[in-house]
Amino acid sequence: MGSRRSPPDAAPHAADGGGVGVALVGLLFLVSGAPAIVYQLLWQRALYAIYGIHVEAVAVVVAAFLLGLGLGGLIGGAVSRRARRPLLLFALAELAIGAYGWGSLAVFDRVGEATLQLGPTATAAATFALVAVPTALMGATLPLLVAHLVRRSRNVGRSVGLLLFVNTVGSAAACLVGAFLLFEALGAAASVRLAAAVNLSVGAVALAWAAVERRTTTTASRPGGEEVATAGRPGRGPSAGVLALAFAGGAVSLSHEIVWFRVYSFATGGLAAGFALVLGMFLAGLAVGALVVRGACRDEVGSGATWGTFARLVAAAAVVGFGLVPLVSWLAPVVHVALTLPAVLIGAALLGVQLPLLGHLGVAADDGAGAGVGRIVLANVLGAVAGSLGTGFVLMEHLSLSGITLLLAAVGLAVAATVRAVTAPAAEAEARRKGGLAAAATLLLLVAARPVAFDGFWDRLLFGRHVGGHPRLERVVEGRGGVIAVTGDGDVYGGGMYDGAFSTDLVDDPNGIARAFALPALHPAPRDVLLIGLSSGSWARVLAAFEGVERLTVVEIDRGYLRLIGERDEFAALLDAPGVSIEIDDGRRWLARHPDRRFDAIVMNTTFHWRAHVSRLLSVEFLEEARRHLRPGGLLYYNTTDSPRAQATAAAVFPHVLRFRNFVAASDVPLVPDATRLREALAGTAVDGRRLLPSGDPAAAARLEAIVREFEAAEGDLALRARTASRRPITDDDMGSEWAHEPDR
User: Is 66 exposed, middle or buried (0-12, 13-18, 19+ CB in 10 A)?
Assistant: First the structure.
């Protein structure tokens, strides 16, 4: 694999500030990890607001971030090869990141407006252009500091391990602080500016310390002073084998991260803080791995002992990574899902050991150490991009989660066996053969264990302690858009939360379809209707059946719902129904990309107000966008899921509002409930030739009267405004109630 000898630690030179200098550098890199993750979380959110949160946009944004980091690692490494003062360059990079971060959200908004109509390729290019410079600067900081420390410690692996540990700890801490304090208290813009202020502070301190080191080094180099030792001229960089391992490690790590995000997103119902918690725990695991493996970096590289350690750790990561995923599901009915998060830390720790070891094995401790680490980082990041795109686009569309988990284990075992076979001494041919057989036998055991380990996997994650009290899931659609589960009695769960049912029954009404009948009761002639969100298709069937509705446009973000609907004969007709068109896109992005479309009504059976990204459909900015798409006299009618803030937001944007159950109708004209039109719609609406409330049926007649009475008691404009007057409207900046820790009731 092309090992490069990395000698044991040498004592820091007195002219460099000794241990104080190393400790300060570590502290600075720790602190700089915090704003990096704040940028990642909030820049991604801002870019999703521009380009949508469908899976293609998510993959493009993640890939752009990773590519920037990788290129930065390469550039930083190349610069560090000849840089006499890499700490000074680190300081300048931090100052530049902070300067960009301060006004970044405003830049994103302007570029987003200018590029909204671009195609996928041009959109990807615009996204990369927005984040390329700051992420490249972030990526450059690691090889620069590696070069700085290696000139003092003469050990690449331990330097990389230390820096990765402290920087990742800072990022993990920022995930937790952001999720539980920062984002709710400050909002997006102020949080980004705080992150920028941290970068600027780190840069200023690093700049000052670089000046101190320069003075002490100059003094030590004068006649009578002690000459500062150097690490020697740059040697050959990491071999192709080491770079290939870095690439494979990045691909596997990002794929595992995607798997964990899907598991916990489903288990928490898409809780916004859940994403940050999983990311924080994953980063904490990487940090632990980087710290623990520093001990192995004392070994002599040429002996092969370190390669053996590397192979064993890769194999352990493969086996443990496979077992931890179903373990979380088996624990879900026993403990709160948050208590299973240490599983993510354990899995990530076994992945986090690999990069420092590759630095130790593949990079000589000379003046080219930073450049060598930069190349390894680039290979690792390119692998991460491949893993993100390959897993997100391809594997999740064609394999189940259990299949992906097994595939990742197979890749890990194959890599471990190959490393052992290539690096073991010639005298250990028998050991190499046994290692390959052990890897194959382990894989066969995992294949055999998979059906049992993953049996009822989604049921347990979905229902937790109440799994025995619910009908078993009879259909699970796993795709790149998410996970949709259907119980035996037709209830639909999208992303781990109830999302309706396959039913248009108005007497029993599991879908609350009675709420849809407020539309003909509030608008005299809704001919052209937009429905954002398809789910089971039940609401779409009823809206399309209203008398006078000539055109129904449905925008749905997850193509998996079309698969489910197409499998049910009584609902499949919706896909080809006259006057009904279904488009797969992000609802907000679709409106922005179709500025000339106007509707008599826009209907949204919006999901729960606390889920990740839902404020994009509840904010002042979105309601204003929707308002521009209404014809004169048109109305916006949407589910606030009983959130007073969401209801207050409607009152802040529209002059006239009305609440029926948890839905709010909002319009520029007075909303006058018409009980007569409501009765006619309830009595006359038929789906597939069957009236929803058949005449002559006592239960149907009683149901009709109950709905009319409830509608007549709907909360009017003045009452709604008085009740929600103390509530702050939701905006894109404050992220609504997604990060709130008290129920918005």
Answer: buried
Angle, nearest 10°, between helix axes 429-453 and 401-423? 170
Contact status, residue 495 vs residue 265, Cβ threshold 8 Å: yes
- In angstroms, the CA 330 to CA 452 distance is 11
Q: What is the pLDDT of residue 102?
A: 95
Token digits of residue 167: 């920087």
Q: Would you say the C-alpha torsion 2, 79, 283, 616 has a positive or negative sign?
A: negative
Res 66 pLDDT > 70: yes
E strands of 524-662, at which residues? Answer: 528-532, 551-556, 580-584, 599-604, 630-639, 656-660
Return d(Cα 323, Cα 453) in angstroms, integer: 8
- pLDDT tens for each residue of 591-604: 999 999 999 999 99
**pTM attached to this predicted model:** 0.87
Which residues neighbour 419 within 8 Å (Cβ) at sequence distance 6 or greater? 1, 245, 307, 310, 311, 314
Q: Count of CB atoms within 10 A of residue 275's CB? A: 20
Q: pLDDT tens, 180-220?
A: 888 888 989 999 999 999 999 999 999 998 888 777 765 54
Question: Can you spell out the DSSP letters for 350-398?
Answer: HHHTHHHHHHHHH--SSTTHHHHHHHHHHHHHHHHHHHHHIIIIIIHHH
Q: pLDDT (tens digit, 9 = 90+) per residue, 557-594?
A: 999 999 999 999 889 999 999 999 999 988 998 999 99
Q: Report the candidate in 170, 200, 199 with the shortest Cα–Cα distance to residue 27.
A: 170
Contact (Cβ atoms closer than 8 angstroms) between residue 611 and residue 646: no
List, in sequence order, the alpha helices (H) in 269-304: 272-292
d(Cα 534, Cα 572) in Å, to the nearest integer?
Answer: 13
Cα–Cα distance measured from residue 615 to residue 353, given in angstroms and rounded to the nearest whole number: 38
Pairing label, strands 482-487, 473-479: antiparallel
